[in-house]
């Protein structure tokens, strides 16, 4: 029995070495995780979500015969009716029949809710802004289907294509962007340049 203490201490040493190896293995895995996440996907995910969120939002200026005029953030694909509702709704004097509530919103657009009788007195121009001249240019970023259809050489089908392009790409920044709309070539673009504005 004199060998028993030697055997116990040898076994204790082996168990201690095994535990130490296990601790080193687990510790190296735990230390490796923060380095991976610091340079890896988790920090990159929030900016990507933020960018996706920013592109899915349009900012519009709602003015005229509404309860709370101002700037409003709405989801991409929102309609003029959504902007009017977000601004507290129309006042009793609003002429909602004078605007297309179903028209899609573009980022940076101004939505003007006219007062009743504004169109009858000729005070509402083609741009949708009270007081604008009726012969002024049609603004591509805010024009309704009817306003675009009234342009020479633009029928209802091409007018809808312009609205679809605006919905997909946002507000027009240049009249030359019309060239990217199917059905409008260089000759038609030259014809429209003096009649439209971004």
Model description:
With 198 residues, the chain is α/β, with parallel strands linked by helices. Among the domains are: 55-125, Ubiquitin-like (UB roll) (Roll), CATH 3.10.20; 136-198, DNA polymerase, domain 1 (Orthogonal Bundle). It is 42% helix and 11% strand. The chain contains six helices and five strands. Strands 2-1-3 form a three-stranded mixed β-sheet. A hairpin with a 5-residue loop joins strand 1 and strand 2. The termini are far apart. Mean pLDDT is 75; it is low at 34-45 and 119-135.
What key phrases describe this protein's structure?
single chain; 198 residues; alpha/beta; Ubiquitin-like (UB roll); DNA polymerase, domain 1; 3-stranded mixed β-sheet; two-stranded parallel ribbon; 6 helices; 5 strands; 42% helix; 11% strand; elongated
Summary?
With 198 residues, the protein is α/β, with parallel strands linked by helices.
Summarize the topology.
Elements: H1 4-39, H2 41-55, E1 57-64, E2 70-75, H3 80-86, E3 110-113, E4 138-139, H4 145-149, H5 156-169, H6 186-192, E5 196-197
Residue runs with pLDDT of under 50 for 5 or more positions: 34-45, 119-135
Quaternary status: single chain
The total of helices stands at: 6
Query: How far from one another are the termini?
Result: 101 Å
Order of the strands making up the biggest sheet: 2-1-3
Number of strands: 5
